[in-house]
Amino acid sequence: MNADVGVAALRGHGMAFGTNALPTALDGEGSGMAHRPFISVYMMTNRRHGTLYVGVTSDLITRVTQHIDGTFPGFTATYGLKRLVWYEPHELIVEAI
After folding, report:
1. Residue 65 within a domain
2. With the C-alpha atoms ordered 33, 5, 91, 83, is the resulting torsion angle positive or negative?
3. Domain count, the chain
4. Looking at residue 79, what DSSP letter applies?
5. Residues 66, 44 contacting (CB under 8 angstroms)
6. 6, 55, 81, 97: most buried by Cβ count inside 10 Å?
7. 39-45 β-sheet, strand order
8. Other CB atoms closer than 10 Å to residue 78's CB: what's the count?
9. Percent of the chain having pLDDT more than 90?
């Protein structure tokens, strides 16, 4: 999924954009917008034609927030990779890997 595709395309996958184009899983109950973890492969960058990082996670929303906040030292913090440019949801972690 390209992070720039728009809300309509993501709703077909049970997701919508939150702030900063961060995908938000929809729970279908209550307020309609609740965080629900989902497995995905994703790419982060710092700028157009910049450094690229590919990751796999079981909770994309939390993980991207950690990258943006610089929660952990490492490659993404060193290079300032705070822009989610692509993700692809999966049912199983072994499919994502």
Report:
1. yes
2. negative
3. 1
4. H
5. no
6. 81
7. 52-57, 39-45, 83-90
8. 10
9. 54
- Mean pLDDT, the chain, integer: 76
Could you give the CA distance from residue 13 to residue 19 in angstroms, rounded to a whole number?
18
Distance from C-alpha of 56 to C-alpha of 34, rounded to nearest angstrom: 22
Domain contains 64: yes
Burial class (CB in 10 A: 0-12, 13-18, 19+), 4: exposed
Instruction: Outline where DSSP puts E strands in the chain.
Output: 15-17, 23-25, 39-45, 52-57, 83-90
Inside any domain, residue 66: yes
2 belongs to a structural domain: no
- Name the more confident of 61 and 30: 61
Assign 64 to helix, strand or coil. Answer: helix
Evaluate whether 52 touches 80 at the Cβ level (below 8 Å): no
